Amino acid sequence: MEKVEEDFYGLALTQIVELKTAKPELKEILDFYEAALKAQRQVKLSFQPDLNKLDIELCRKRSSKGLPFLKSSDIQIDLDLFDKLLEDIGRIIRSKKKEAIPVTLKRFSLDKQCALLLRDILEEGPALEKLACEMKADFRVFYFLVTQAFSPFLQSYAQKLREFVDLSSWLKGVCPICGTEPMIARLEEETGRRWLFCPLCHTEWLFKRLACPFCENDDHESLRYFFVENDQAHRIDVCDKCKRYIKTIDLRKTDNAMNLLVENLSTLALDIVADREGFRGGDVSLFREK
Ligand SMILES: [Zn+2]
Ligand SMILES: [Zn+2]
C-alpha cells in the first residue's frame, strides 16, 4: 500500500494563518513566509526523487561512520523547478527588500551552477560567496534564498530516506540526513527527551539533553537556559563556550505546539534577546541581526 506522505508545508501554512491572528505584530514576517512556503509547497508536490539513482548501501555505510546519509552529489535536483522557485522566492524577497538582491537570478541553473551551490550549502565551498559578491547581493539574504530554494527537494529525499536512519541513536549536532545544523529543538511531552529540527530537510533527531549541539560541550557550568516574559514553554538554551544558542519548545509545558518551522517564527522575539546577549543561532534564518 502506498504510504500517504505528510503535507509539511500545508500544515505550516494553516498554522501561519492562525498565528497571524494570535500575533498580529508578526504579520509582515508571516506574510513573507506564507508566500515563500506556498511556492515551496508547489515544488514539493511536483517533485519525486529518483531513489534508483541512489546507492542506499553506500549511504548507510556513510551514516554508520557518523557522516550525514546524503552527500550533495547524491541529490538530483529538477533544474526547471529549482530555477522557478529561486525566481519566485527572489521576487518575494525583493518585494520586501529590493536592495538585498539587485540582480535577477535566472541564469544559475542554466549555467549548471546548481550542483556547486548545493555542495556549498551541505559541504562548504567558495561558490556561494563568490556568486553573492558578483551579484552585489547581501550574503545572508542570498544564502537564505538559495537554501530555501533547495529545501523542498531535500525534504522530498529526507521523507523517503528517514526509514534507513536510526534517528534516536545518531545523537550528533547536525542533521543525520543532510548534515545541516539545527534551527530549533523540542522537548518531548512524555519523557522530556530533546529532539533537534533541521531547517533544510525538516528531519527531527534525538540529541543529548545537556549538551550544546554546535560544539558538543557538555560541561554543565557553561550551559544554561533562560525564558522571556515568563513563558516557560519556550526557552533559549545557550552555550557560554561557543557563544551560540538554540531555542527550545518544552512540550510538557504547552498544549498548543505548532510545527517547528512555525514555532521558530512565532518565537522571533527570543532571537532578538539572544542576539542582544551576544549569542549566535543557526545560520538558516533571514530575520536575525548581523
Ligand atoms: Zn537535514
Ligand atoms: Zn557550544
Structure description:
This protein is of the alpha+beta class and 290 residues long. It has 2 domains: 157 residues, no CATH class; 93 residues, no CATH class. 42% of the residues lie in helices and 10% in strands. It has 10 helices and 6 strands. Strands 3-2-1-6-5-4 form a 6-stranded mixed sheet, covered by helices on one side. Strand 1 and strand 2 form a beta hairpin. Helix 2 packs antiparallel against helix 4 and helix 2 packs across helix 8.
Task: Please render the helix and strand layout as text.
Blueprint: H1 8-22, H2 27-46, H3 56-64, H4 79-96, H5 107-110, H6 114-123, H7 127-134, H8 139-161, E1 184-187, E2 194-197, E3 204-207, E4 223-227, E5 234-239, E6 244-250, H9 260-266, H10 268-276
Parallel strand pairs: 1-6
Antiparallel strand pairs: 1-2, 2-3, 4-5, 5-6
Bound molecules: zinc ion (2 copies).
State the main characteristics.
290 residues, alpha+beta, 2 domains, six-stranded mixed beta sheet, globular, binds zinc ion
Task: Summarize this structure briefly.
The protein is α+β, with helices and mostly antiparallel strands.
